[in-house]
Write a structure and sequence with these properties.
InterPro entries: CheY-like_superfamily (IPR011006), Cyclic_di-GMP/3'3'-cGAMP_PDE (IPR052020), DUF3369 (IPR021800), HD/PDEase_dom (IPR003607), HD_GYP_dom (IPR037522). The protein is an alpha/beta fold. Helix content is 51%, strand content 13%. β5, α5 and β6 form a beta-alpha-beta unit.
């Protein structure tokens, strides 16, 4: 489905709406002459610019002017008398605003006396002001024209700056979405990202936007609420029909049926489909009507969301294919040395995932360990059948030959440039090393053994002890636990032994679900 079809817009985008959030335009007048203050208040009585009144802030000294411009960052226009008292302090105030406060947005109108007329060109060129008027020019009409022109300039530059900030935020969030690795994480993050963009657009300090996400797999009849803000938290994991608001249900049903996003009053509902297994609908409402600017903003953001989501689905499809190939390769290696093909490699992958998570590895490293561990014994493919399939105990020379499978697996995988296969090479090489240095093939000790090797090593032994083999019967759980305790700090990393025993119920549940 094209992105254009995802949205129905009922009128064109008008960026001026962003400016209607503040109640007044603030104008600061800095002059020790009462005349300028009085004329300004008279000329602008009952005046409105883009729906907002003008508020004058009067400063009669340089110090008061500094205080007001410092405390009011939202002043739109400042009119400065170049002569304040007997000194040319107006130019110092211009410098203070532009250089010290780094305020490039407030429009500055400078008023001069006749004595400064000779310096007029020099002042215009060397000071960052927006207008320059002599006192004899300051009629009511000239004052009105100057201030309205300045307000218009402030309005335009404010829109540009707000748009720049919002676009920067959208790009930052979009880049983050591209880095997410799972659909669940993507969808969960998305709700709060859209709300944060909306609240920023509305300068909304009270965070009045709220919402939830519903999801449905192909085989499910109804949507379930999978993520929500606090207001809808009590509906989490419940069927969409549990919502008592018939309007919300109506909007969601329309979007689900017609597969496009819509806006209605202070609500918008976004449609997201991975064209495979799941559909998601994002519902958000606000306490204020959604402006045309906000709709256009969400449309821009949502275009990026759709592309990021499609990219994630493609990545996941490639990753699933890679995982399936690795599992198959691991099962082929296992099948050569066992009497029947089981789920050993899948269980090792799942044990390894838990151990890696609890050990504190990063999300990416956890994923790599889980994907790479199934081919820990890939080197057995190169071991002769008379050794690999021997039902009895191996001779010393046969066992020495069998130990070569660790190095052979490493040699098969070491030249890959793929992160998963590089990790698999390490695991194949080191999963028979022992923490006390008595393992093989290198006799590595302690943390010299890569964490990937230490994790897969304990996962492999744990599963092998619980499982039936041609040369042994399965061990009882209590005997496996006793061995783990006995080999803590000897065969196995002591930290990993503690993690395994602390999560023994979860480990045994995996064995039960994926038993041979």
């Amino acid at each position: 489905m094209s992105i254009e079809k995802l949205f129905k817009m009922d009128k064109p985008f008008n960026p001026i709406e962003i400016l209607n959030k503040d109640e007044v335009w603030k104008i600061l007048i800095v002059s020790d002459e009462e005349k300028l203050h009085k004329i300004s208040s008279i000329v602008f009585t009952d005046f409105r610019f883009h729906g907002k009144k003008v508020e004058f802030i009067n400063a009669y000294s340089f110090d008061t002017g500094v205080k007001e411009i410092t405390n009011n960052s939202d002043i739109a226009v400042v009119i400065i008398d170049i002569m304040i008292g007997n000194d040319i302090l107006g130019l110092e105030l211009v410098k203070y605003i532009r250089k010290y406060l780094n305020n490039k947005y407030t429009r500055i109108i400078l008023q001069s006396s006749k004595s400064e007329e000779l310096r007029k060109k020099d002042i215009i060129l060397n000071y960052d002001i927006n207008d320059y008027k002599g006192k004899e020019e300051l009629t009511s009409l000239n004052l009105f024209t100057g201030i309205v022109t300045a307000l218009r300039g402030y309005k335009d530059i404010t829109i540009i700056e707000e748009n720049r900030k919002l676009l920067k935020k959208i790009m930052e969030i979009s880049n983050k979405l591209y880095s997410l690795g799972s659909e669940e994480e993507f969808v969960s993050t998305l709700l709060f990202d859209i709300i944060s963009v909306l609240d920023m657009a509305d300068n909304n300090k009270e965070n009045c936007s709220r919402g939830f996400i519903v999801g449905k797999k192909k085989y499910q009849n109804d949507f379930k609420i999978v993520e929500s803000t606090h207001d809808y938290k009590h509906f989490l994991d419940k069927d969409i029909q549990s919502l008592s608001d018939s309007k919300i249900l109506k909007y969601i049903n329309i979007v689900a049926e017609q597969q496009y996003s819509l806006f209605k009053e202070n609500v918008f509902v976004l449609y997201l489909d991975n064209q495979n297994e799941k559909k998601h609908i994002i519902y958000i409402d606000t306490e204020v009507d959604i402006s045309i600017f906000d709709r256009e903003l969400v449309r821009l953001f949502y275009n990026n969301v759709v592309m990021a989501f499609e990219n994630l689905n493609l990545y996941n499809e490639i990753e699933d294919t890679q995982r399936e190939i690795i599992y198959t390769l691991g099962e082929v290696a296992e099948a050569r040395s066992e009497s029947e093909i089981g789920n050993h490699v899948k269980r090792v992958a799942m044990y390894s995932e838990i151990l890696a998570q609890k050990f504190g590895l990063s999300r990416e490293e956890v994923k790599i360990v889980k994907m790479a561990s199934p081919i820990h014994d890939v080197g057995k493919i190169a071991i002769p059948d008379d050794i690999l399939l021997k039902p009895g105990k191996l001779t010393i020379s046969e066992f020495e030959y069998m130990k070569k499978h660790a190095k052979l697996g490493y040699e098969m995988l070491k030249n890959s440039k793929r992160e998963v296969l590089k990790a698999a090479a390490i695991i194949a090489h080191q999963h028979h090393e022992k923490y006390d240095g008595t393992g093989y093939p290198q006799g590595l000790r302690g943390e010299k053994i890569h964490i990937y090797g230490r994790i897969t090593g304990i996962a492999d032994v744990f599963d092998a002890l619980l499982s039936r083999r041609v040369y042994k019967n399965p061990w009882k759980v209590e005997n496996v636990i006793d061995l783990m305790k006995k080999e803590k700090g000897k065969h196995f990393d002591p930290i990993l032994v503690d993690i395994l025993l602390e999560n023994i119920d979860e480990m045994l549940e995996i064995y039960e679900i994926y038993g041979d």
